[in-house]
Amino acid sequence: MVYKTRPVDSYGSRRELEDNRLIVGLLTVELFLGEANSLKEKRRLLKGLIDRIKARFNVSVAEVGEQDTWQRSVVGVSFVSCEQAHVHQVLAAVVRFIERQGTVLITDYQTELL
Predict the structure, then answer these.
(1) Class assignment of domain 26-113?
(2) What residue range is the signal peptide (predicted)?
(3) By C-alpha distance, which of 53, 62, 64 is closest to 90?
């Protein structure tokens, strides 16, 4: 399938292009899963948490590290918006949501804007 794109000039002025920029927020959360006694149990706990995050927020979520460690995990969350404040607000809400779950403990987290 071939997609045609419009030439840059047809989008309007440079100012209009800058006003329509996208802000990508990346949240990396390190978790301790004290209730997990095996990799199978860890995957069950994480799947439930990831499903709840996706259902509550319009974000993408995946386990991105510590996949073979049964009580630790690194989860990546991404969100896209036109407003920097909105990105910070949503990612902060995700952190608070994870903290309230009670099944995992956040050991560290980091937010980046791209």
Answers:
(1) alpha beta
(2) none
(3) 53
